[in-house]
Write a structure and sequence with these properties.
It contains seven helices and 21 strands. It has helices at 114-121, 144-153, 175-183, 192-201, 270-273, 306-316, 335-344, and strands at residues 10-13, 20-22, 27-29, 37-41, 44-50, 56-61, 75-81, 95-100, 103-110, 130-132, 161-166, 207-212, 223-228, 231-238, 245-252, 255-259, 279-283, 321-324, 349-351, 356-358, 364-366.
């Protein structure tokens, strides 16, 4: 087992240093340009290689990661939360912010803990305009009311929010009905927000909500759901059990990020939607196909196997694959899955952690150390500690 993976790590095949070749028994390291999986742990960075079967092998330690050079990227993504619904693996639930021209403009899902992540990174949420919900499960939506209210408290003006998400199915409301249940001025659960924002902050809450067709048992169509000022957003239905669900493709400044949302591969839309993406952000993955049995079997209608994830990324021709919405209690549990994916996908792979910035050219940097993302960095955690003077002169106690 990979002991150094035990601390919420990221795994990176550094972009622009990557070359893999298929030798018949899996993708091996290229000989002309060295390929590494970089493991960034809480206490440093460890470099590992990839074997012919895709398994990670320990190597020497390296005091650096794929360092972000000065960038003029028109678009990049902050991972606010990289965890699943259980609150036990040190990760916030899933959510992302997409930055355009240096401004945080788009929210993609807002699971529990993502609001706190916005605060930690110092992200200016008053600049947000668009919210994309892949689906309306609680671990993808719970922090949206907090973010909405906080944006006005922090100085947002009265411009309109654009909220997009899937249609409903049976007892499961569509996005427009869901937003109404929360924020309707008359009987919404948080109807008071309208009065609060108007009376205390001198502006108005304006929400424009759009339902996007998301049939649960048919492929439907890939649709362009937003196109303005050089920004294009496309959506495609995905299969996530009985819950209407969408994947999104966001293109700006010639670069593309695709967010799969939670999906099984039944409908087959993800590789088509993600074709040629600079970055494919993959939510969740199951155990390898051979290990799906017993109580784990029903999850096949909810999520994808590593075999499918690797195949989809390779078919799409994605330049980088980001694995997020991680459910494993121990990151070491991903070792087998990473090996299976690497046998099918020849590009760089990142296992996301919270507060990570991902650029379309494959560069990755901590959000709290990136002046492009927030108002500053937090520096050394030790500098943030308050140590009361207990009257002892012995510092070694």
């Amino acid at each position: 087992m990979l002991d150094y993976l035990a601390t919420n790590t990221i795994v990176i095949n550094c972009k622009n240093n990557t070359s893999m070749s298929d030798s018949g028994d899996g993708f091996k390291l290229g000989t002309q340009r060295r390929t590494f999986l970089k493991i960034a742990g809480a206490s440093g960075l460890t470099t590992v290689g990839v074997s012919g079967t895709g398994a990670a092998q320990s190597g020497d330690t390296t005091p650096s990661i794929c360092e972000k050079a000065d960038s003029d990227a028109d678009i990049y993504v902050t991972v606010l939360g990289s965890g699943a619904s259980a609150l036990k693996n040190g990760r916030s639930q899933v959510g992302y912010i997409v930055h355009l021209d240096g401004e945080p403009r788009i929210l993609v899902d807002t699971g529990g803990g993502t609001a706190a992540a916005v605060s930690e990174a110092g992200i200016d949420i008053t600049a947000l305009d668009i919210v994309l919900f892949t689906h309306l499960h609680v671990d993808h939506t719970s922090d949206f009311p907090a973010m909405l209210k906080a944006s006005y408290q922090q100085g947002r003006d009265g411009r309109q929010w654009q909220i997009l998400g899937p249609t409903g199915e049976g007892s499961r409301p569509g996005t427009k009905a869901w937003v109404s249940k929360l924020f309707d001025k008359t009987d919404g659960a948080y109807s008071y927000i309208h009065e609060f924002v108007h009376d205390y902050l001198g502006t108005d809450v304006r929400l424009e909500t759009t339902d996007i067709s998301a049939p649960v048992d048919s492929s439907g169509e890939i649709q362009t759901v937003y196109e303005r000022d050089g920004l294009s957003i496309q959506a495609a239905p995905t299969k996530h059990g009985a819950m209407p669900s969408l994947a999104y493709r966001i293109t700006y400044g010639g670069s593309t990020f695709t967010f799969t949302g939670d999906y099984s591969s039944k409908l087959g839309n993800v590789p088509t939607l993600a074709e040629g993406s600079d970055v494919l952000v993959q939510n969740r993955l199951l155990k390898p196909q051979s290990e799906l049995k017993g109580s784990y079997g029903p999850k096949r209608t909810l999520h994808s196997t590593p075999e499918e994830v690797g195949t989809n990324a390779q078919t799409a021709g994605a330049n980088m694959l980001v694995l997020s919405h991680v459910s494993r209690d121990e990151v070491t549990d991903l070792e087998r899955e990473l090996g299976v994916i690497a046998q099918r996908y020849a590009g760089p792979i990142v296992v996301a952690k919270d507060l990570l910035d991902i650029y379309p050219d494959g560069e990755v940097v901590s959000s709290t150390a990136n002046p492009e993302t927030g108002v500053g960095t937090h520096g050394n955690d030790a500098d943030m500690l308050f140590r009361p003077n207990l009257g002892s002169s012995n510092d070694e106690q």
